[in-house]
Amino acid sequence: MKPPVIFVTGTDTGAGKTVFAAHLVQHLRHQGCRVVGLKPLCSGRRDDARLLRAAAGKVLSLDEVNPWHFRAPLAPLLAARKESRRVQLSQVVKHVRTVSQRYEWVVVEGAGGLLSPLGEDFDSRDLIVALQALPVVVCPNRLGAVNQARLVLDALPVRARTQARVVLMSPPRSHPATRSNARLLAEFFATDRICEFPWLGKESQSSTHLRPRPANQVARVLGRWFSP
User: For the chain, what is the domain count?
Assistant: First the structure.
């Protein structure tokens, strides 16, 4: 059985969530699946939402991919308050569930790290629980990654933690820690739920370019969970 929603969260902002989520959406689309990517809340620029929209073939409008956008480059909660706006957990859950009725796969990207405030009294952890989503924790594969990944995993509720996957995003230049993090993390977390995602090139970080990847480089992350 596939999860109703795949939720891509991270150890911090800039961890590589959008790059991974967009390539996952693209992979499933190329496998013939009806798939969309959502970035329900974002603040500042909307590049992440645009990249997710493009990965799915622009089957949704930008405002459907990203219903709550705020101008200030702050945590969405603070950015919304600067505009005298409030976002409730129930609103976001309703939107994701409405979209999920039309597609086989829904990949949701959070904003910032797992506990970054998104709206009034909720964060990505609350969304994962409310949506009963499969969590994917994205972490830069650098010195300190094992600690960061374990902190996020420990912050997840037990049920979500037992299903979670970890994606270590490779940096442009390798480091001794980059080559050993996956092995070390496997001493605390199931090996088959850890994946090292390759560096894709600087241009793949933009909202206008998504480099195609061999299917197995994404499919291996969650195995049967990401199989059509």
Answer: 1
CA angle 56, 38, 68 (to 5 degrees): 135
Rounded average pLDDT over 46-65:
96
Closest CA to 11 of 200, 146, 207, 128: 146
- Domain containing 93: what range? 6-226
For residue 140, what is the domain's CATH number?
Answer: 3.40.50.300
Q: Is 39 part of the annotated catalytic residue set? A: yes
Judged by average pLDDT, the poorest of 29-38, 193-202, 218-227 is 218-227
- Please report, for residues 74, 75, 105, 150, the alpha-carbon distance to residue 220 in angstroms, rounded to integers and kept in the order given: 34, 32, 17, 21
Nearest to 150 by CA among 160, 141, 137: 137
Q: Is residue 1 assigned to a domain?
A: no
Nearest to 170 by CA among 181, 154, 162, 159: 181
